[in-house]
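@channel sequence for tomorrow's demo:
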Amino acid sequence: MTKTRIQILISLAFIIPVGFYSKFYAGPAASWVNNSLGGVFYEIFWCLLGVLLFPQARPRKIAGIVFAGTCLLECLQLWHPPFLEYVRSFFIGKTILGTTFSWSDFPYYAVGSLVGWVWVKKLGDFQKRIS
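structure tokens (generated this afternoon):
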């Protein structure tokens, strides 16, 4: 396993609990953290996972695909067929698919994809410096 893949796994081990915590956070600005800031962590997670699964792909391309995919998922929240409602009835279904469409989520997806792209790029740059 390459050092970069190990760094991505460590990053995932960090971002996954942070992302889930953002869904349960109950302090100041809880609604914003639960419903908006969590979208940034969601995008970073998918960017990291994308690079882990497709290490030859360019991080910018992965970030673009992640952004487009999550925007599509956001639009799917306007559709409520029984099979999607069933999946959304579970915590993980709500977390991945969402439940309520909101235009205000799109900027957080853009920020998260940008941060995810920079994060992955910096891991690669760091790897090049220490090699």
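heads up for whoever presents: The CA atoms of residues 73 and 97 lie 6 Å apart.
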